[in-house]
Specification:
By secondary structure, the protein is an alpha+beta fold. The chain has one domain (19-123): Beta-Lactamase (2-Layer Sandwich). 20% of the residues lie in helices and 23% in strands. It is built from 3 helices and 5 strands, in the order H-E-E-H-H-E-E-E. A 5-stranded antiparallel β-sheet has the order 2-1-5-4-3. The radius of gyration is 14 Å and the shape is globular.
């Protein structure tokens, strides 16, 4: 399956998805993520959006983003404004505290079992 097919598949998923590297750079997001995060970058390009660790106010989220590369999977609840940790996002005028307050963060290994990417799926 080529990258274009993968992008099309995740675009149909109704919840925001972000796939990132160990350098905390996003390599792929779906349409739901772009809409929710209100990306300033209309044409998402690999490497243009980063997870800004200093902007993560939720300790459980910060730990999960780092430890996912150790092979751990996390289910988080009670998140507040998690999209603020991404560069290139704009703030919503009125935050919705109960919307996308859960996330699953899991590792993606390469063929040699080394963890190369982390995935965040945000859920209501």
């Amino acid at each position: 399956m080529d990258d274009k097919s993968k992008e099309q598949i995740i675009d149909f998923f109704p919840y925001p998805i972000a796939i990132f590297t160990q350098q905390y750079t996003l390599v792929m997001v779906n349409k739901a993520f772009a809409a929710e995060a209100k990306l300033r970058f209309m044409n998402f390009e690999k490497g243009t959006i980063r997870i800004l660790q200093y902007k993560i106010k939720d300790t459980q989220l910060a730990v999960a983003v780092v430890k996912v590369f150790g092979g751990d999977t996390f289910f988080l609840e009670g998140l507040k404004n998690p999209f603020s940790m991404f560069s290139g996002t704009t703030r919503k005028s009125a935050p919705q505290p109960d919307y996308f307050n859960k996330a699953v963060i899991f590792p993606v290994p390469s063929d040699n079992a080394k963890i190369t990417h982390g995935v965040i799926v945000f859920m209501p």
